[in-house]
Amino acid sequence: MQLRKRVIQSIFKRNFASYFSGVLGYLFIVVFVVLGGALAFNARFFTGNTPSLDQLSQWYPVLLLFFIPAVTMSVWAEEKKMGTDELLFTMPASEKEILLGKYAAVLAVYSVALVFSMAHVMVLMFLGNPDWGLIATTYFGYWIAGAALLSAGMLASLLTSNMTVAFVVGILLCGIPVFIGNLGNLLGLGDTLNQFSLAEQFRDFGMGVVPLTGVLYFVSLTVLMLYLNYVVMTRRHWQTKREPSMATQFAIRAVSVAAVLGCATAWAGYSALRVDATSQRLFSLSPTTKSILAKLESERPIEIQAFLSPEVPREYTETRKRLVGLLRQFDELGGKNLAVRYVDVEPFSPQAEEAEHFGIEPVQVMTERDGRRSEVDVYLGAVVISSYDKVVVPFFGKGLPIEYELTRSIQTVASEERHTVGVLSTDAGLMSGSDWQIVEELRKQYDVEEVSASSEINAEKFDVLLAVMPSSLTESEMDNLVNYAKTGSPLLVFDDPFPLTLGSNGFGVTGAPRQPKRGHSSMMGGGSPSESKADGGKATRLLNALGLRWQYDAVVFDMNNPHPEFAMLPAEYVFVTRQQTDSESFNRDDEITRGLQELIALYPGEVRAANDSDTQFEPLLQTGRESGVLRWEEFVDDSGFNMFTMQAAVNPRQNPFRVIDANTHTIAAKVTREGDNSVNAIFVADVDMISDFFFQERNLGNLSMKFDNVTFVLNAVDSLVGDTSFLELRSRRPAHRTLVRVEEQKREFLEAANEAERKADQAAEKELELRREQLSKRVKEIQENEDLDPIAKAQMLRQAQEAEQKRMTLAEAQIEQEKNDQIRKIRATTNRQIRKLESNIRLWSVGLPAIPALALGLFVFVQRSKDERNNVLDSRRRDRSSDDSNVH
């Protein structure tokens, strides 16, 4: 029977209008948007400092669990209670038309509620600059997930004539897709059933992607539940004698429908088809990848062997799915020039031995399975092979950019020769013993060789020289490095006034330029001392050759911290972010930093151009204007002692006094000079940014934020080598977006606090100066007293000085204590102001979305009351009857 659009529209209008005929409909919408606002703008929203709906998305399935049954509980239960369902079925309309009309009505009601909830988006617009593609896919995910659960809620209403019972049954039915993953954990099938949960299928929508598998999942759930609605509706036509057989028949049909829809959804997951709506198109192949795949030569085919665990913990399910999806796209675009082999690897199997032959070993991952924390061996590696070369990616962690790793590996093995990176031997020890992670990373793309500065450095043997902590070189070694730099050969320098990375087992810093060169003496004091550092650790000759100035014992700080969850970090942990509007934190014109979003440097130094130099100085990384400089004595505590090196170790002070100078400070710069004594170098005044931690975190992705430290280093190497093919692809990542208005207000609080602290310090210093003047005045009075003989005068002077010194010491301690108390009070006040600001924003964010729904409800109520009054006959008006009685 053909569906009649007119009939469906009539039923839709009847049910839709009835929902808004009373106060209850508007009340449900108000509760929905208020709860949504409370979930979206909770405390973690401000901690995350990102203009997104991530917090709401996390709780949205639970919110739907209560809102959907509230919308659908009266769809059939009220009809049955009033007896209008029989009248409805006697109308010239089929069951399918009635079902679709009612479903369209509740779907429209839910859509209206979503429209009102878009006030949350207005709040995000006010606070920051959200990704509109991400917002669109998130709301589409909200809509399609709610549409699926609405059909389940209608089924619950169809089973009873009591709205309360319908609400409870609706929660139970909607709870199946919401909590099926938790049910799987109880049954020992968590990894299997979790993929069918609503939250898991919604995940991609919340990331800015519309996956075919997610769409088919929700559509399949909707179709299945509507079919069950139809079966229950047509039950009244069954003959009593045949009812058991009919029930069995339709049950088999329902199972068959579910099986078909499940297979279709599984196929969609295998196909990995998706629409990428993010601003940066992060989930689509880049033009760089497509270009490299198109240029592959048929004479030199490439093979990718992917060694994958068949089952991975849920934390790595998305990573495995993305890896397999990208490999399929590479296989398709590469054609006959690229082949992909998938190898399922179980521990201690022949496939595991093959993987380990290529250097791919299992990584132990902590996961929760069946309610228990356990370690699982996971294989997620690949080897890319050609007749020229071989590149191994041992493990694709959650944070690793998979497309970049695959594309770079393909390009590397497709090239006949590699460029070479020379690593200078210094006290940093990048290739002494176990190599630093930066060396391992460079080996994926370059040949890496260790270079000694004890003799002349031959620039012909490598394409770029990496020098970490050259301030530790001896006199002769420094001369050789300076001679290399003057040839104009590419040079990448990392030096650091306070290198935490070089500390020994957490006992303090022992490799700072200001400290003596590390010795090799034994525990009993034997052995010969090592040579001293060139230029006393100041690297003066190298800096002069490069046309730079660098204070070897001073660090910069920056009050900017876009991550409130790490508010305890000192300001010497410098966050360089794209959102710093008061400075060019990243050089937007240079290819190295153009695509970077956020980077962190730990106790970095400052590099400047020499006043009399003709070197072209180009800043790459800079602090904001809420920054300043700390001298060595202001931030170092010399009380530490390192038992492993028998040297005095230094530790950072807990609360150094910082004075913001409102200037920007350059952390990294590129310097070039042509002609005689040409220069082509990049100087970075921080070593900690290339520590192993950032390379490991880039792979594992355990932090909530993503730093571009590794990207910056690799971009700098590529730029100096002259190979820029991967710069754009390597820099692909979500734009760094923050709550700009909140940060601006916090910045005002922090500036006021810093000014108050500065005044408190000045007042303390002024008080101390007055005490010193009193002492000087007393000494002068004694000296000018002619009535005293020299012996008595000397004795009185000594007594006066001792007494005044005691008072001075006591006064200094008292003034220092008062100053510290005042500073603590200022900081506590600032923290209260920040919390109050967040609370006010949260209050408005929760309350404002409810106003449009309340206003619309009030308008409809007033309009309806007015219409009812206009339709009443004059003779039946109460005020009219009163007037007539007064006349009589």
How does this structure look, described?
There is one protein chain. With 888 residues, this protein is of the alpha/beta class. It folds into 5 domains: 206 residues, no CATH class; 134 residues, Glutaredoxin (3-Layer(aba) Sandwich); 316 residues; 106 residues, no CATH class; 38 residues. Helix content is 52%, strand content 14%. It contains 28 helices and 23 strands. Strands 10-9-11-12-23-22-18 form a 7-stranded mixed beta sheet, with helices on one face. It has a 4-stranded mixed beta sheet with strand order 4-3-7-8, with helices on both faces. Strands 1-2 form a two-stranded antiparallel ribbon. A hairpin with a 2-residue loop joins strand 5 and strand 6. Helix 8 packs parallel to helix 12. It starts with a helix and ends with a helix.
